[in-house]
Amino acid sequence: MTFKDFNFSEELLQGLDAMRFEEPTPVQEKAIPVIQTGKDIIAVAQTGTGKTAAFLLPILDKIQKQGGGKLNTLIIAPTRELAMQIDQQMEGFSYFTGASSIAIYGGGSGSSFDAEKTALIEGADVIVATPGRLLSHLNLNYVKIDQLEHFILDEADRMLDMGFADDLKKIAEYLPKKRQNIMFSATMPPKIRKLARDVMNNPEEISIAISQTAEGIMQAAYMTHENQKNELVKSLLKGKEELNSIIIFTSRKTTVKDLVRDLKKMDMDADGISSDLNQEEREEVLRRFKNKRLRILVATDIISRGIDIDSIDLVINYDVPNDPEDYVHRVGRTARAKSTGVALTLIDSKGIRDFQKIEQLIKKTVPKLPNPPDIGDGPEYKSGNSQHRSGGNKKRNFNKKRNFKKKD
Predict the structure, then answer these.
(1) pLDDT at 65 (0 to 100)
(2) Could you tell me the CATH number of the domain that includes residue 140?
(3) Measured between alpha carbons, how far is 366 from 348 in angstroms, rounded to an integer?
(4) Which of 12, 27, 103, 225 is spaced 20 to 30 Å from 125 by Cα?
């Protein structure tokens, strides 16, 4: 199947060709025809499956064919990073169509708020917004939203986890009753079904590989005490110049500073993102990383679902995610779009139980590899009848260069 089979406009197909989109992914094959019918839809799909294009392409095609010039589509995303990523993809797809868009999120200057206000009054075709920022505009009663046709919720489960349920319902109250509702979520817990009942009309459901990691990801873990982690990361990265794009996720912003400092002392090209940076600084770090001018990005969980970058060679979970679904999303930063990649997790004694839940969710046992000899033993990992201790005296060591490459 090709994108021509969806009967997209020639202008949209030109944009797809320029972005080197050749054939639709499974979620695109299933979701696009449903969206084209105008039905409400709930799509369950994890990060890296092509879900953004699944909802953007049919919407852009419709705008191109019927003409723009009014607020046609409202897309809500949980974080400013994800809103920016969606808007950037929108710009690429719509390059030959002339459709307009703007990302609306907090943390900017007064001038950015004014630009958002202008777009909402004059009618950008597509608005991508975070819930709180959009409500700030809606409450001021100048948003021209009466001709809105599409209401899209991306990462719906994450928005509910972040406490946006009431905000989403308030936003829905401002919208025209007659509209198409589109919801994308990585999981389908009861709270998502409740939200769907509140804002959607008899939605059709599709599901793609729920809570499974991509086949191209080589996954492994190390048992390590907290005070060994920085040294282990340094050891794993030393001499691995062939890895051009690396993300390290941590749950604490203090770790970001400490690890970046240690990596820079080794003359490694590293920088970090945490809530300590303002929005402009965070955008600049992300831009450098995306443009391959920064090799190692150390980040708190704030961007685990909000970054859309291909060809990431290695993801390291410095801390085991508390939510098993977050593991799927973190390691989903690599092996995107049928590529391959490596995902490593550092498990301390506090993370063992959470990692066992991860293995239950993804339905596979992740290999526990021995620490390099100079790091020393870590805690024991007990799973069922098996028991692992990461000693430094075993022959099998993932740190050896011949074992530390992406699959062919």
Answers:
(1) 93
(2) 3.40.50.300
(3) 15
(4) 27
